[in-house]
UniProtKB/TrEMBL annotation, chain A:
UniProt-listed InterPro entries: BFD-like_2Fe2S-bd_dom, BFD-like_2Fe2S-bd_dom_sf
Gene3D superfamilies from the UniProt entry: BFD-like [2Fe-2S]-binding domain
Protein name (database record): (2Fe-2S)-binding protein
Domain of life: Bacteria
Domain BFD-like [2Fe-2S]-binding: 7-56
The species this protein was found in: Cohnella endophytica
From TrEMBL, chain B:
Regions annotated as coiled coil: none
Record flagged with keyword Iron: no
UniProt entry keywords in alphabetical sequence: Oxidoreductase
Protein name (record): FAD-dependent oxidoreductase
Naturally occurring in which organism (per UniProt): Cohnella endophytica
Molecular function in Gene Ontology: oxidoreductase activity
Domain annotation FAD/NAD(P)-binding: ranges: 6-169
This protein's record includes keyword Oxidoreductase: yes
Gene3D superfamilies attached to this UniProt entry: FAD/NAD(P)-binding domain
Stretch forming the signal peptide: none
Length: 89, 405
């Protein structure tokens, strides 16, 4: 009961089991977890799973995390076409 | 006029609109950008009755703010997503959007809050949505979300929205807890959830109030309350609030067909042999809110972590200034609170920006103090306190005290 695998990062289709396995194996930070699993690297920019990954790595309370986000935010923060992105610069 | 802007406000919610009004009244040229098709932010979904009988209709409140903004020549553009921003030397800020770039001397980020997910098996099926999405469909788009729903997650937001769905005549089969897993530790603990619900007993219909009132304030009694809480739930708005049951998985082929639930023990662990299926064609997931601060991060603003405020918030002081010159924040991006607090914070931000612009009609320091005082009053009187320790946390952050005077 309750052991059905399920997705945490919907954009990159990464499951809870995959994320936990990586965290346990490498004792990694949110950033390393993201790079190893691709969770949080999809089209939504991690809007849904970013807080979940932080919760799993337990990074939010860490000293450093108190002054910055555990996972860097990269622009653009919304999905837009290359054409639109190019118009800005 | 676009090339001579004093202020760009990102987010046309209550905080952004009230900041735009306050600064435009001082003579600033203001542009407000919002990605939603209509201005008003999360106000648009709000509909509830206050204890004095007054109906808070968010759509009306939003219309009023938009009217005041227009009267003061604020330019509001919707359907514009801000994708990045950058500080350009001492001269101001450049903003990128899906409608081209803009620049201004000052920027206010008032992007509000986002909903937290609480994933469970089956949550990616069509028909599963966040509870906020159900609120927008019902109250803003006037679309029926489904015929019979199940709500997963109990917190002040889900309670408020359940009452709205019921007002719209939508049937809800049950409200249950999320399953216990590493992502939903506190939200799946029946004792924790009961304690937080008891804080809102004054908002709830009689049944929970009568049940809750006798247990308030005493932790031994609260532990007993959980034992005495009926398995089948207490009916609120004709929907059973099942604190002693949790969702196990959402089931369905190509869309939601139901939710498998189980009785749980006092730790939230399912009791074997108690599983059953509730038929439903939609499911609302209510995982709470966190400040939507992505643009502040892109801008390079430092952060503070404060669980009482919903997570990481951009560093700012009581005047809504961030450590970055020309960058301000207001509303739920500074911590999850109610709409009236967001409006009051917006006024503070608007005045601070006007003062920093050095316009001829610049507000006085006393006016700013009065506005900051009003934020505290609103916070104290707020009908919905998203966290019991907000005031203490704000005082720590701002170096202020409780005195409201
Ligand atoms: C689903 C939900 C339900 C709520 N229900 C209640 C309730 O019943 N009662 C209550 O008191 N409070 C409620 N709240 C809290 C609510 O957030 C505040 O009451 C209030 O609306 C906050 O005001 P704000 O101006 O800070 O943000 P919001 O009202 O959230 O407005 C922010 C605006 O910014 C826009 N935006 C965000 N990012 C971008 C971007 N990158 N580019 C362009 N535009 C952007 C959004 O489209 C939005 O219109 C709710 C919040 C949520 C999320």
């Amino acid at each position: 009961m309750g052991n059905t695998p399920f997705i945490v990062c919907r954009c990159e289709e990464v499951t809870l089991e995959q994320i936990i396995e990586v965290i346990e194996r490498y004792h990694c930070s949110s950033r390393e977890t993201k790079l190893r699993t691709r969770a949080g690297m999809g089209i939504c920019g991690g809007r849904t799973c970013r807080p979940l990954i932080d919760r799993l790595t337990g990074q939010m309370d860490a000293e450093k995390a108190a002054y910055s986000l555990p996972l860097k935010v990269q622009p653009p923060v919304r999905p837009i076409s290359f054409g639109e992105w190019g118009r800005g610069s | 006029m676009i090339d001579r802007l004093d202020l760009i406000v990102i987010g046309a919610g209550p905080a952004g609109l009230s900041a735009a009004i306050a600064s435009a009244r001082c003579g600033l040229r203001v542009l407000v950008l919002d990605e939603f098709p209509r201005p008003g932010g999360r106000l648009l979904g709000q509909l509830h009755q206050e204890p004095d009988g007054f109906w808070w209709n968010g759509i009306k409140e939003a219309q009023q703010l938009v009217r005041q903004a227009s009267e003061n020549s604020v330019d509001i553009r919707t359907g514009v997503s801000v994708t990045a921003l950058e500080q350009i030397g001492q001269t101001g800020w450049k903003i990128w959007t899906n409608r081209g770039p803009f620049s201004a001397k000052h920027v206010l980020i008032a992007t509000g809050a986002a909903e937290s997910a609480c994933p469970l098996p089956g949550w990616t099926l069509p028909g599963v949505m966040s509870i906020g999405a159900a609120q927008v469909m019902t109250n803003v788009q006037r679309v029926r979300v489904g015929n019979r729903g199940v709500v997963v997650g109990m917190n002040v937001l889900s309670m408020a929205i359940v009452s709205e769905l019921r007002l719209a005549g939508i049937e809800l089969a049950a409200i249950v807890l999320p399953p216990k897993n590493p992502l939903n530790v506190r939200a799946s603990d029946p004792g924790d959830v009961l304690r937080s619900l008891l804080r809102f007993a004054h908002l709830a219909p009689n049944a929970l109030f009568r049940f809750g009132a006798s247990f308030l304030g005493n932790s031994l009694m609260q532990r007993m309350a959980l034992k005495l809480y009926p398995r089948r739930g207490i009916r609120m708005w004709n929907t059973p609030l099942q604190l002693r049951r949790s969702a196990v998985e959402i089931v369905g082929g190509s869309c939601v067909e139901g939710v498998r639930i189980a009785d749980i023990d006092s730790e939230g662990v399912p009791i074997p042999g108690t599983e059953r299926l509730i038929e439903a064609d939609f499911v609302c997931i209510a995982g709470g809110l966190y400040p939507l601060a992505e643009l502040a991060a892109v801008a390079g603003c430092p952060f503070r972590y404060a669980p009482e405020l919903g997570g990481h918030v951009p560093a700012h002081d009581e005047s809504m200034r961030t450590p970055l010159q020309g960058l301000y924040v207001a509303g739920n991006i500074t911590g999850v609170e109610s709409a009236k607090v967001a409006i009051a914070q917006g006024q503070v931000a608007g005045l601070s920006i006007a003062i920093d612009s050095g316009v001829p009609d610049s507000p006085t320091e006393t006016e700013l103090q009065t506005a900051m005082h009003r934020v505290k009053q609103m916070r104290r009187d707020a009908l919905i306190q998203f966290d019991p320790d907000i005031t203490a946390c704000r005082n720590r952050m701002y170096g202020t005290n409780d005195a409201i005077g």
